[in-house]
């Protein structure tokens, strides 16, 4: 799993002020969960109540969450670079590592890079945001990550997206409605696009200048 080796305490402290106190309450729950057999080695499909559930803490409605607009900016940029199967989940009650995940599929290494480049550009221009760890990874690996703290943008190849199946791992997250900023093609899974007679991910497009 991608979370192995992360310093959860430091990540919690770097979160926005609105979430720091809540994250502090999650440390014991996360430490306990890591001791449970297979909790981190295999996808978790069963929701495990945490201290925050018993505290009665709830995040604000999605429309009132300041990061929702930022998520939509990133999703719209990905759609412009023909990203497919664009999905955003708010996981504020499930982890203190981040608040939102944005998942995007691309058809080639150059396209993955083109998507991440435009997302970085738009978030910097419109929201003054830069990633915390610089280089998002190697496009040839089929998985790039842009870490903005409260938002983590994952750009996958189709193969890696199916292999890691992140939506199943975080299936209890709140799905963000992106229909106002992402095209119908951008929202569909590649196999659904084929059913509708649409082109799937454009593997042959020239992304060298993107």
Walk me through this protein's architecture.
- By secondary structure, the protein is an alpha+beta fold.
- The chain has a domain at 59-195: Beta Polymerase, domain 2 (2-Layer Sandwich), CATH 3.30.460.
- Helices cover 41% and strands 13% of the residues.
- It is built from nine helices and five strands; from the N terminus they run ααααββαββααβαα.
- Strands 3-4-2-1-5 form a five-stranded mixed beta sheet.
- The longest helix has 19 residues, at 17-35.
- The chain is globular.
- The two termini are 31 Å apart.
Lay out the secondary structure.
Layout lengths: L7 H7 L2 H19 L15 H5 L10 H15 L3 E7 L9 E7 L2 H19 L15 E5 L3 E7 H7 L1 H4 L4 E2 L8 H4 L2 H6 L15
Parallel strand pairs: 2-4
Antiparallel strand pairs: 1-2, 1-5, 3-4
Question: Which terms would index this structure?
Answer:
Beta Polymerase, domain 2; globular; 5 strands; alpha+beta; single chain; disordered N terminus; 210 residues; five-stranded mixed beta sheet
Brief overview, please?
The protein has 210 residues and is of the alpha+beta class. The protein has a domain at 59-195: Beta Polymerase, domain 2, CATH 3.30.460.10. The protein has helices at residues 8-14, 17-35, 51-55, 66-80, 109-127, 158-164, 166-169, 184-187, 190-195, and strands at 84-90, 100-106, 143-147, 151-157, 174-175.
The proportion of strand residues reads: 5-15%
Major sheet description:
5 strands, mixed
| Computed structural class | alpha+beta
CATH architecture of the domain at 59-195: 2-Layer Sandwich
- By CATH, the topology of the domain at 59-195 is Beta Polymerase, domain 2
Which regions contain 5 or more consecutive residues with pLDDT less than 50?
Answer: 1-41, 194-201
Name of the CATH homologous superfamily of the domain at 59-195: Beta Polymerase, domain 2
Order of helices and strands: HHHHEEHEEHHEHH
Question: Alpha-carbon distance between the termini?
Answer: 31 Å
